């Protein structure tokens, strides 16, 4: 170990340590037999043959832009090359991933390759799950985690000593010895901002000027790609029929099916199990419980068929796949700044995504990719690349975080791809009404505090209101539950879940049900309770950890004013009854019609005013996480004063009923005061 000089080591020296029987990180301990099995496989990866070439570039420049095809070993091996080269520095190396599953599974694999226990020299850090220790030298983390660290340490001093970075297309360096941005081509919002922040650390004039490119060839076997002759809307049936045919007629090899939705995965797995025998049908999507996800990475005596969303597209290695069935569809999130509405639409994938999916079939042997769409559609409809998230997201969280780390002029921030001004202006407007920026756009003290919360910024105001009303403990529970609302339930039928949970259940009643879980001591009792309620225990445990994290900042009080506190914090997401139809509302300032989500407990209750947590467009525009409120709770807020109500170009009110409802509430309030 003493032979390794920082940034002067050679591939020969590191390989000599790795090949030795004695464990270089464990005194008086030898490497295991499993270690040498994995080492043999590592040596066959394309990137291993270019280890010295990589180190030569790494030693001579501050920034490397590394590009590589799938199967080269870049995600697992490059961080290990850097680990030994930076070992003498005793600094930490961080490698970001765009998905939680990729960070956790890759850390597990690398810890096995290094013959180390996960959480010691090698660990991972994802939201609410930190498997690192003071011994950790190589950490895999989501880009979100590194971005939030930037709020405390914008110069990345934990990772940067000589300020060296690697940007991987799939790398970047700094009190960590090195920062590696893996899967950078996916262009998530956090990765884009991290690239800009790292640029500031290095004082670049242009992005990555002076950066050296390093290309690693992929180890990809020949892949035969086929298309259907006629287009079809029933992609699921066609994909399942193809998987069944492969299982019954073709040679050995696992099958990977890419589907757009989790419902498709659930329905498809049930149907495929019924239609086949001796086939191990698995699923892979982000909301799946951890033990179910882990099954995908374990080999089976039977042929496996894995039904997955686009989570399996990049950053995840599934050994044994020979056949890929690609439906060519993905659920794409977007945002309309004009109406403040999130969108989730089923859209064709990009050509880059299609190629990425196909490459899974050629990792270990010649493979086949069956595309459930026409070649003409691939050529004419599919975009070359998936648009970066910064061009299709709500930017209010990003704007607040940038201001929190010292960037005031967010409109002229040096983005990799500058977003349109409209979503930035919408973000500034929302932040102003929440009190997080002032009229000049400068972040307020309240805004700086809100930026530290691990959940949506609006909950800061909810906590403050709840504290004054004596119900902060309940509000913290609701906020933690809402943060995991989409992951809390398993994918069972809506009928069964509604039969189990009260139809008229509100956030408060749901909170009480979850607190019932927290009151149970025995593991068996908890498991039985979760099974009866169709709840995902691991997510509820995450919710409990988040709840505890939030409680540390607020004293526990009790009261019944939760809805009032919600109303006075989510007021900018308010809607008034639309007499055009049952369960329909119009947003107060935008005047956009939307129905209640079918799962809402308020369906059929016909409340006059509501506040909502989400405004989305799927099959139609709908409001989710809805709470009924009294307009009397809102009348003193600036947002609802006559001068600030939404108006048409000719000066007339967009929604006269809002004006009259507020006036009526003020009269009623005045009458109560007089009495």
Low-confidence stretches: 169-175, 203-207, 488-506, 555-560
Write down the overall mean pLDDT: 84
Number of strands: 21
Sheet with the most strands, sense and barrel status? 8 strands, mixed
How much strand content do the residues show? 15-25%
Please name the fourth-level CATH homologous superfamily of the largest domain. Answer: P-loop containing nucleotide triphosphate hydrolases
Strand order of the largest sheet: 4-3-5-2-7-6-1-8
Q: How many domain units?
A: 4
**SSE-based structural type:** alpha/beta
Shape: globular
Summarize the amount of helix as a percent range: 25-40%
Q: Which value, in Å, is the CA radius of gyration?
A: 27 Å
What is the CA–CA distance across the termini? 83 Å
> Per CATH, which architecture of the largest domain?
3-Layer(aba) Sandwich
CATH topology name of the largest domain: Rossmann fold
Secondary structure tally, helices:
23
What top-tier CATH class of the largest domain fits best?
Answer: Alpha Beta
Describe the protein in words.
It holds the Pfam family OB_NTP_bind. This is ATP-binding PRP16. InterPro entries: DEAD-box_helicase_OB_fold, DEAH_win-hel_dom, DNA/RNA_helicase_DEAH_CS, Helicase_ATP-bd, Helicase_C-like, P-loop_NTPase. With 675 residues, the protein is of the alpha/beta class. The chain folds into 4 domains: 11-216, P-loop containing nucleotide triphosphate hydrolases (Rossmann fold, 3-Layer(aba) Sandwich), CATH 3.40.50; 223-389, P-loop containing nucleotide triphosphate hydrolases (Rossmann fold); 413-556, Four Helix Bundle (Hemerythrin (Met), subunit A) (Up-down Bundle), CATH 1.20.120; 570-674, no CATH class. Helices cover 37% and strands 18% of the residues. An 8-stranded mixed sheet has the order 4-3-5-2-7-6-1-8, with helices on both faces. Strands 9-16-13-10-12-11 form a 6-stranded parallel sheet, with helices on both faces. It has a 5-stranded mixed beta barrel with strand order 17-18-19-21-20. Helix 16 packs antiparallel against helix 17 (472-483) and helix 17 (472-483) packs across helix 21. The longest helix is centred in the C-terminal third of the chain and has 19 residues, at 656-674. The radius of gyration is 27 Å and the shape is globular.
């Amino acid at each position: 170990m003493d032979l390794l000089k920082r940034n002067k080591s050679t591939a020969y020296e590191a390989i000599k340590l790795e090949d030795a029987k004695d464990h270089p990180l464990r005194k008086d301990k030898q490497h295991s037999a499993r270690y040498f099995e994995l080492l043999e496989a590592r040596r066959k990866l394309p990137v291993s043959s270019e280890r010295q070439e990589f180190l030569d570039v790494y030693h001579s420049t501050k920034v490397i832009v590394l590009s590589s095809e799938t199967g080269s070993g870049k995600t697992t091996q490059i961080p290990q090359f850097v680990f030994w080269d930076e070992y003498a520095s005793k600094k930490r190396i961080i490698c970001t991933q765009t998905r939680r599953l990729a960070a956790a599974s890759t850390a597990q694999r690398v810890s096995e390759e290094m013959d180390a226990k996960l959480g010691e020299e090698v660990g991972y850090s994802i939201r609410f799950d930190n498997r690192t220790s003071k011994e950790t030298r190589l950490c895999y983390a989501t880009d979100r985690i590194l971005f939030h660290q930037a709020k405390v340490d914008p110069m990345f001093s934990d990772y940067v000593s000589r300020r060296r970075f690697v940007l991987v297309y799939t790398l970047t360096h700094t009190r960590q010895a090195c920062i590696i941005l893996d899967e950078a081509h996916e262009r998530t919002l956090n990765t884009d901002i991290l690239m800009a922040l790292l640029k500031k650390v290095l004082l670049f004039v242009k992005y990555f000027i002076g950066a050296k490119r390093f290309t690693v060839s992929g180890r990809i076997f020949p892949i035969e790609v086929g298309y259907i002759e006629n287009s079809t809307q029933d992609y699921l049936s066609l994909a399942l029929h193809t998987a069944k045919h492969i299982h019954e007629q073709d040679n050995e090899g696992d099958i990977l099916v890419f589907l757009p939705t989790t419902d498709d995965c659930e329905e498809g797995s049930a149907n495929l199990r019924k239609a086949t025998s001796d086939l191990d049908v698995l699923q892979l999507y982000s909301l799946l419980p951890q033990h179910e996800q882990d099954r995908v990475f374990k080999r089976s005596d039977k042929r496996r068929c894995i039904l997955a969303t686009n989570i399996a597209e990049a950053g995840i290695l599934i050994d044994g796949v020979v056949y890929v069935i690609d439906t060519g569809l993905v659920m794409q999130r977007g945002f309309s700044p004009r109406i403040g509405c999130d969108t989730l639409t089923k859209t064709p994938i990009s050509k880059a995504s299609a190629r990425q999916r196909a490459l899974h079939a050629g990792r270990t042997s010649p493979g086949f990719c069956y595309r459930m769409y026409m070649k003409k559609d691939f050529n004419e409809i599919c975009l070359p690349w998936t648009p970066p998230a910064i061009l299709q997201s709500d930017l209010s969280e990003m704007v607040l975080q940038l201001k929190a780390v010292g960037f005031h002029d967010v409109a002229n921030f040096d983005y990799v791809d500058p977003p349109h001004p409209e979503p930035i202006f919408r973000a500034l407007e929302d932040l102003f009404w929440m009190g997080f920026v002032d009229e000049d756009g400068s972040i307020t003290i309240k805004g700086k505090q809100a930026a530290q919360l691990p959940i949506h910024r609006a909950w800061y105001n909810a906590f403050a209101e709840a504290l004054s009303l004596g119900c902060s403990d309940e509000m913290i529970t609701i906020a933690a539950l809402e943060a995991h609302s989409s992951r809390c339930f398993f994918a069972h039928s809506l009928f069964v879940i509604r039969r189990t949970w009260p139809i008229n259940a509100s956030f408060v009643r749901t909170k009480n049900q979850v607190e019932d879980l927290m009151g149970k001591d025995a593991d068996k009792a908890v498991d039985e309770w979760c099974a009866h309620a169709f709840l995902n225990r691991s997510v509820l445990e995450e919710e409990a950890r988040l709840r505890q994290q939030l409680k540390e900042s607020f004293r526990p009080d009790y009261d019944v004013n939760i809805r009032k506190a919600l109303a006075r914090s989510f007021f900018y997401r308010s809607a008034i009854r639309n007499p055009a139809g049952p369960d329909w509302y119009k947003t107060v300032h935008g005047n956009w019609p939307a129905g209640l989500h079918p799962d809402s407990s308020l369906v059929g209750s016909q409340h006059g005013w509501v506040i909502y947590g989400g405004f989305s467009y799927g099959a139609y525009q709908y409001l989710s996480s809805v709470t009924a409120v009294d307009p009397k709770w809102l009348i003193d807020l600036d947002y609802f004063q006559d001068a600030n109500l939404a108006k048409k170009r000719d000066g007339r009110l967009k929604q006269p009923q809002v004006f009259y409802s507020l006036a009526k509430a003020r009269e009623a309030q005045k009458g109560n005061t007089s009495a």
